[in-house]
Amino acid sequence: MAGNSYGTLFRLTTFGESHGEALGGIIDGCPAGISLNFDAIRSEMQRRKPGQSSIVTQRKEEDEVQFLSGIFEGKTTGTPIGFIIPNTNQKSDDYSHIKNSYRPSHADYVYEKKYGVRDYRGGGRSSARETSCRVVAGAIAKQVLSDIKITAFVSSVGEIFLEKPYQEVDFSLIETNAVRCPDKVVAEKMENYIKEIKKLGDTVGGTITCVIQNVPIGLGEPVFDKLHAELGKAMLSINAVKGFEFGSGFCGARMKGSEHNDLYNEDGTTKTNLSGGIQGGISNGMDIYFRVAFKPVATLIQKQEVLNNQNEIVAQQGKGRHDPCVVPRAVPIVEAMAALVLADFYLINKTYQE
Amino acid sequence: MAGNSYGTLFRLTTFGESHGEALGGIIDGCPAGISLNFDAIRSEMQRRKPGQSSIVTQRKEEDEVQFLSGIFEGKTTGTPIGFIIPNTNQKSDDYSHIKNSYRPSHADYVYEKKYGVRDYRGGGRSSARETSCRVVAGAIAKQVLSDIKITAFVSSVGEIFLEKPYQEVDFSLIETNAVRCPDKVVAEKMENYIKEIKKLGDTVGGTITCVIQNVPIGLGEPVFDKLHAELGKAMLSINAVKGFEFGSGFCGARMKGSEHNDLYNEDGTTKTNLSGGIQGGISNGMDIYFRVAFKPVATLIQKQEVLNNQNEIVAQQGKGRHDPCVVPRAVPIVEAMAALVLADFYLINKTYQE
Amino acid sequence: MAGNSYGTLFRLTTFGESHGEALGGIIDGCPAGISLNFDAIRSEMQRRKPGQSSIVTQRKEEDEVQFLSGIFEGKTTGTPIGFIIPNTNQKSDDYSHIKNSYRPSHADYVYEKKYGVRDYRGGGRSSARETSCRVVAGAIAKQVLSDIKITAFVSSVGEIFLEKPYQEVDFSLIETNAVRCPDKVVAEKMENYIKEIKKLGDTVGGTITCVIQNVPIGLGEPVFDKLHAELGKAMLSINAVKGFEFGSGFCGARMKGSEHNDLYNEDGTTKTNLSGGIQGGISNGMDIYFRVAFKPVATLIQKQEVLNNQNEIVAQQGKGRHDPCVVPRAVPIVEAMAALVLADFYLINKTYQE
Amino acid sequence: MAGNSYGTLFRLTTFGESHGEALGGIIDGCPAGISLNFDAIRSEMQRRKPGQSSIVTQRKEEDEVQFLSGIFEGKTTGTPIGFIIPNTNQKSDDYSHIKNSYRPSHADYVYEKKYGVRDYRGGGRSSARETSCRVVAGAIAKQVLSDIKITAFVSSVGEIFLEKPYQEVDFSLIETNAVRCPDKVVAEKMENYIKEIKKLGDTVGGTITCVIQNVPIGLGEPVFDKLHAELGKAMLSINAVKGFEFGSGFCGARMKGSEHNDLYNEDGTTKTNLSGGIQGGISNGMDIYFRVAFKPVATLIQKQEVLNNQNEIVAQQGKGRHDPCVVPRAVPIVEAMAALVLADFYLINKTYQE
């Protein structure tokens, strides 16, 4: 209810502030008997980790996950998987300057108004550091979903767009560059632009496209818990996300029915896939694909006007080590949230079948 | 779990197929002591009702709601509000032709695969007729939220856009035309275009913009249940929706942080509102605004290829009485879902306060 | 949250007051493809119905259930099953005398204090008439559980006890008498006692024993949602219930471990069954059995002191048509709630299996 | 869903096996701004801790709780409170002898059948060590409930009963003896009996009575989530519990209505309190009291027949350091679970009020 859990049957609950002792979570409902691939989990963590390249934040966070329960002799036991990610490099003093002030387009102000109290150290609970727990759980969810393949990549940074449709994209190129854009030329443009932005102490937004393949027919619940509605919520719950569209998305709103309908082949597949792999909220076996919009990071390394708790506007020099553009590191987070949603529907779907 | 409930503290559960005896629902968690305005509920129903103008479906559905419980001497009692909406004009035979076939971009096929059985009469549970129950509950939620004002309007039909920002829109014009677009000239263009499309037996998509005013600071739960994430899910759960964006939305992904940040005024309001009234998932007291994309209705009054249950592609003449464009009638549905989300967070928020 | 739903995957939500237009409910999550036996549902309703014998209330309630959705051509479709039970014989005027007064050991007073308003007609939502909806849903849950056999019977009325253990009971005798006690001699004593009590305008309590057979191993979730914990909650949620014990129950608290442990047979069954078919919250395949205590009905047909809303104690003559002893009619309710609990765990259990 | 969470608005989720690295939990929904009394938390932990007296298990478990989030400068912040309790003295080898065998009346067998895999080290997740997390959360819940006073004590051990009603009990005596029975003479008898039982390598059951005072009117939700139904579930979820009764309990089932009804005083209190402080599932402001039955611990320090995974019955010598009687250490657990239930209803109740 208080918003720190996701999913119903495959359910992640997280805790932790950016500058507390540790973050962590509990995964409840993970099926028993899965031989966990810990390297795969670690690898997802590495993709999200700060300091992985010159275009992301240079904060030193080890992001080492410790599993405390629910796993025995390498296998899941069906009991809750508890884990923690210690905060090894909190540097609390970095944040003393914001103790009494509310940074623009941050959550400082609303937390203080909502709760009457605020952990002002670096964003506290509202920090994107919390997403590290999502990546851990998502990496396990992926292993529950073995055959289903979830792939995200950066499809735009600022005004620089990867113009090709996902069907023409070579997924093997995603991890070959720091931006995670699967096109050598576009990726280079994006990278250079991010470096430029960084030099200015500014930040820039971007979009991520996600493709889910090998989805069985039937995932998703009709009416309120449609598969795309839950995917949308999952994506919008990621820090900095401002929009979500799947299949034809906002373009679909400009089309005619005669153009938009996906005609069937005899095997139940469809000739086109403007539906984005989902009909009436239920997967139809075609690729699911969607696009997520991220706003520019609000923390600038520039002088900026902030509000303080004396109701004064004062100039403040932004400092710290922040991402100039969030999308490269958000790729594994998008995948993780997609995996959580699918794992949940995958388990729910089992209950309908004889 | 099975997807027919929405909300946690203010919770709507619905049932009903388009051609069953009745649809209906239960609203659980409505606070006691509210003197319900039944005219307001009826009026919302009228806005969604078929046959209200020449540009919407001419089906005759009375959409008369009967309240069965939870109200005593005109006031809510805190016990569940049960209601039904009888189906008075089912015309089941209209649908015998689709008994053994799956219409393109409908849910026919996935329902049959998911459940092994399908109520083939007119879409059954996947019909947008189900949204009538949402409108009933939303109309009650609005009364719980008394001071909060929720206003939706049509902002595009096909390629015809209302270009002005919502701040320049005169809300009092929304109900003055059949399209529900608050601009006389644009509305007329849209209306003419819809009529033209209808003549062709085709359909067209569109977008709806929704604005929420007078929102108290503090609604929304951080991390997974962010206010905009829940609004996104609510909107994406409406039939035909393909996308959701709030505040700067997809445009925000193209901006720089120095352009995007909303600087504070001394009273805690912000000079700009690219955040769309929400910071870190929590309302900040500024207007909330978002945009929802609807695809064109899939049912065409044209000959179309369908798949039958013998795995054959056959031509089929579409018939029936369908909407050429869904957005005019979807305006009250968008408002209703927004009201449900806000009522839920409004009640949750009470639990945090001393 | 507001307490009108039961279950998670097989989920019943109910509405309705004793003197409103109708009661009803929604069953969400019922698996698709079940050919419902409507006679079996009607038969369970008959067992709960007032007026079925001379020892129960003589109110005339038809208790005719109307199914409005979720069933097509006799089969469940996987969509929510909506149903109503019209109130055909409300006789509201019977209750005008309690409009301004709070009857002892009724919920009148606490409803008014909790909600600030109260539907004073015959107990409103707190009336046991609400259990009719549970019986409908339970009768469907039984059909989901086909092989599992749930049998309840009256094991005491006042000081008259059926002394034999359930293993020696002939279940076929339960429905042969009005008390639903499976022993001719004891049943007759109980029946005579209830008639005597009724003549005095008094009431008496009793207990019901319930036995669940053919339960697969593995139902129930460890830690908080133990199978017996949920059964306990389900029983304690029935009007007038004051206690619940399973297996050795309160007697077990007086025993030594060396007496209480159930030694295994080689096939995994146990030689004794003091555990009551549940170990660590999970069914072990042995019979589950438990006992439920019902207090005497609070409504007496005698003069009694009541509190009025002027804070005065006044004498009031009880009137109306009430049960002198609730247990005979509560037998199908106990079975229904047990069926709801088991159906839920049965579906949850499916999600753990490869 | 998988059973490791309790509560809805004040919600505890736990993880951990008896011999894993740590147990722990997340408390979500704790109101902000509470200055936590850490001594009070530690003191509750001490009451549950092994080794506290000669009549409880002599295992050495430090039970030191580490809070990792949700608390800032000594106050709750409204964000989730994550905590761990490291396992400092696992002694895994103690349990190698049960790796391939199922102890009678333990959960070994059903866990293996349910999940297909089992952490055989000392009961794993089914160990009562898990209750340490409940005590942490309960100690915080008590601080949320400040004015409400929850007091539990041992009311029987085997056949030795504390005969007086709770109203005549001097609560200040509870902690004066190792049994936690508030009567010097009875406590001594119980203590001697437990020592005797322990010498024999046997165990014995007992009961705990719990009294909740200063409860505001209105806690509890009608119909399915009645206050006593939730209390019953909470108690039955504690390891070894076989029964629950509140107010008149099983005795009430033997009474007549004319004896059982609680007549009102003019101030809304009642002259008697057979209802146990709850009417129709809602607190009426009178003391809530209930009784919980615990079976004897199943682990005996005797030779006993066990089933092995070759389907053979073999004799096995029980060993280890177990409690001869569980009730003295279960007193704080009963209080903790009562506190969790009340905190949840306390928060839910806020949402109904204007």
Automatic annotation (TrEMBL), chains A, B, C, D:
Residues binding FMN: 125-127, 239-240, 280, 295-299, 321
Catalytic activity, reaction form: 5-O-(1-carboxyvinyl)-3-phosphoshikimate = chorismate + phosphate
Pfam families assigned: Chorismate_synt
Complex and partners: Homotetramer.
Keywords for the protein's UniProt record, in alphabetical order: Amino-acid biosynthesis, Aromatic amino acid biosynthesis, FAD, Flavoprotein, FMN, Lyase, NADP
Cofactor section: FMNH2
Species this chain originates from: Flavobacterium aureirubrum
Positions annotated to bind NADP(+): 48
Free-text cofactor note: Reduced FMN (FMNH(2)).
Name of the molecule in the record: Chorismate synthase
Pathway: Metabolic intermediate biosynthesis; chorismate biosynthesis; chorismate from D-erythrose 4-phosphate and phosphoenolpyruvate: step 7/7
Name of the encoding gene: aroC
Job of this protein: This reaction introduces a second double bond into the aromatic ring system.
Family indicated by similarity: Belongs to the chorismate synthase family.
EC number: 4.2.3.5
Gene Ontology MF terms in the entry: chorismate synthase activity
CDD domains: Chorismate_synthase
Keyword field contains Zinc: no
